[in-house]
Amino acid sequence: LQQLDFADAAVAEPFQMPVAEIEKAAVVVLVGCNIRHEVPLLHQRLHKASKRGAKIFAINPVDFEFSFDLAGKQIVAPSKLASALVDEGIASALKAANGNAVIVLGELAENHAQASQIHAAARDLAQATGARLNRIPQGANALGLARHGVLPQGQGRHTDAMLDGSLKAVVLYGIEPQFDFADGAAALKALAGAKVVAFTAYASDELKKLADVILPIGLLPEIEATLTNVDGVDQSTSAGGKLPGEARAGWRVLRALADKLGLADFAFTDLTGLRAGLRAESVVSGTGVASAMASTPGLERIVSTPIYRADAVLRRATALNSHPLTLGARAVLHPEEALALGLSEGAMAKVGDGVGSAALPVAISSRVPRGAVWIESGYEATAPLSPGARLTVARA
């Protein structure tokens, strides 16, 4: 759950350039985006676009691998993503495309501590060149949730405000706090002082320690559901198997709880009745821009989600976690950065942000810029680290 920058709320919107059109684009600019891991099918569309002669540029904090050649790239620390968008070469290419161009913002841009700065720079570039702007939704059903009002409204709070320690009771729905919040360490600290009711398919040891009540619910293949794809098209599923044990479809558990509490708007007995009461809302992102963050000592953390560690099911898939792309928790440094710190390949490093710390093996790669350290999320070892704080790195 993105929780760091609220000046321009990270509201999910359908792609301005539909997925099918992207393979016919003349120019594509990837910003903070490891497209091959985030949306593999979209990466395949770009591969086809490249074969047709499209110019594809990348502005990233890691020199990610693609199956196509780039027309140009900038590999910069995360704090430089917004300023890197002011590039004459990229702007000229976008203008020359006469509207057949798109800027794609990925996970590293959307979940950045100052995402609003990147959004503003990307909007300015799109407006100046006639390009369209696509933002990859963060979460499998982010578009559907936003469309049906699952956003802070009225007295509702954004994630950071909910994790300030003031809440006395919290309901978690399908969340493993140490992995599924942008700042897992802050989430665990805030939830430790609250009464927690957890709707989950997996009662992990961490959740058992944290939750006062655990309610078993089914996983997507076991229930009827609707997901909304990046183009804003609803796609329905049917239950593919019997729910195990006492697990129930999540909506049934929510309805039963609401009935006990005497809450309104839960007078339905099946999903058809629930859907009949839904009214899609128009979703528009904010345009505010947060103040620039003060520079502090230490290395910037580059945070990406491993392709096979993005959710509770993937994290428990033995075969996928044995895949070569699941590299494990590690700290990746530029060769010159590692040399300056006295660290070598495979050495153990102590990484800290003043609140949490981790002991991680070191990997050395010129794909990472100086002044930054690439530490993926989704692992027990990296959970204590803040995603936005500067890090100290030293030999363990």
What is shown here, in short?
With 396 residues, this protein is α/β, with parallel strands linked by helices. Helix content is 29%, strand content 18%. The longest helix has 15 residues, at 115-129.
Task: Describe the protein in words.
This protein is α/β, with parallel strands linked by helices and 396 residues long. It has 17 helices and 16 strands. It has helices at residues 19-22, 35-38, 40-51, 81-84, 88-96, 107-110, 115-129, 142-147, 159-162, 177-180, 184-191, 205-210, 250-261, 271-276, 312-315, 318-321, 335-341; strands at 27-31, 55-60, 72-75, 101-105, 132-135, 169-173, 195-200, 213-216, 225-228, 234-237, 300-302, 331-333, 348-352, 357-364, 372-374, 392-395. Strands 3-2-1-4-5 form a five-stranded parallel beta sheet, with helices on both faces. A four-stranded mixed beta sheet has the order 12-14-13-16. It has a three-stranded parallel beta sheet with strand order 6-7-8. β13 and β14 (357-364) form a beta hairpin. The longest helix has 15 residues, at 115-129. The chain starts with 18 loop residues before the first helix and ends with a strand. The model has no long low-confidence stretch (mean pLDDT 92).
SSE arrangement:
Blueprint (H helix, E strand, L loop, with lengths): L18 H4 L4 E5 L3 H4 L1 H12 L3 E6 L11 E4 L5 H4 L3 H9 L4 E5 L1 H4 L4 H15 L2 E4 L6 H6 L11 H4 L6 E5 L3 H4 L3 H8 L3 E6 L4 H6 L2 E4 L8 E4 L5 E4 L12 H12 L9 H6 L23 E3 L9 H4 L2 H4 L9 E3 L1 H7 L6 E5 L4 E8 L7 E3 L17 E4 L1
Parallel strand pairs: 1-2, 1-4, 2-3, 4-5, 6-7, 7-8, 11-15, 12-14
Antiparallel strand pairs: 9-10, 13-14, 13-16
Helix pairs in contact: 5-7
